Amino acid sequence: MHDSLRSLDLNLLVTLDALLAELNVTRAAERLHLAQPTVSVQLARLRDALGDPLLLPGARGMRPTARALALRGPLSQALEALRLAIAAERPFDPSQAQLTWRVAATDYTEATILRPALGPLRAAAPGTRLAIVDMNPPTLVRKAEQGELDLAFHIAIDAPPGLRQRPLFADRYVLAGRADHPRLRRRPTLKQFCALEHVIVSPDGGGFSGPTDDALAKQGLARNVVLSVPRFSGLAAMLVDSDLVAMLPQRLVAGNPALAVVEAPLAVPGFEMLMLWPERVHRDPAHQWLREHLGRGVSIALR
């Protein structure tokens, strides 16, 4: 099969389709906007390649051979399928879409990006599904390229190379504790800050040091970290039920009446959040819509 395909080019197949439809070289040439001699030459090449005369002289034009009759339907269907395959894509209609998107996210990006976007997403694209999977940076690029992931959210400083990216927002760290925490009625001094009992989020598990500790170490100081948890979810409840405090991203605690939020007595570097996706979906209209929808939702939430 492959050898027979190599002996033909697409133009010859288009010519054959026109000849089988018109059963006349002159009309086929007009249909193809070609000169009649050109179509005659192409017919000769088709006969040689297929080992069949295909069209025979008749009283009224030309008569198709049995081989030509067998080719007519499948050839027409194949060319139409090819035309549809390479035709310009129609605009994406989210209201009619039946898709599943797989997004890698941490609990922080679930809370700050995906949760606020979920209601509008369901309203705009009710037939779609969203699968949120755990963020695993070492496998991110491979899974995205192999089609296991469509989108991911990651901080810029550690973003893996090889993926398209779009900046979403910058966030910074603030000091948070329960609303009536006696040490958070005002901004604590650096000495008071270090003496508080701190919780730290360690995504890798079990760590007791982070950006705040790096900033303190530059001043020859250390804080009192008494608890390490693997994720942000559930941390607010721990703060509310204790005198523990935590340095948390501002977007995560903004507007929470159960928490007191104050500025820390030292500068701690914040971070920039990116949206990441593989090249394979960069020009896909559905994926473009999803990226714009999520990006627009973040912009609205920032107002």
TrEMBL record:
Matching Pfam families: HTH_1 (PF00126), LysR_substrate (PF03466)
SUPFAM superfamilies documented for this protein: Periplasmic binding protein-like II (SSF53850), Winged helix' DNA-binding domain (SSF46785)
Sorted UniProt keywords: DNA-binding, Transcription, Transcription regulation
InterPro entries on file: LysR-type_TF, LysR_HTH_N, LysR_subst-bd, WH-like_DNA-bd_sf, WH_DNA-bd_sf
Domain HTH lysR-type: 8-65
Record bears the keyword DNA-binding: yes
Gene3D superfamilies xref list: Periplasmic binding protein-like II, Winged helix-like DNA-binding domain superfamily/Winged helix DNA-binding domain
Family, as annotated: Belongs to the LysR transcriptional regulatory family.
Name of the protein this chain belongs to: LysR family transcriptional regulator
Organism: Pseudomonas soli
Lineage: Bacteria, Pseudomonadati, Pseudomonadota, Gammaproteobacteria, Pseudomonadales
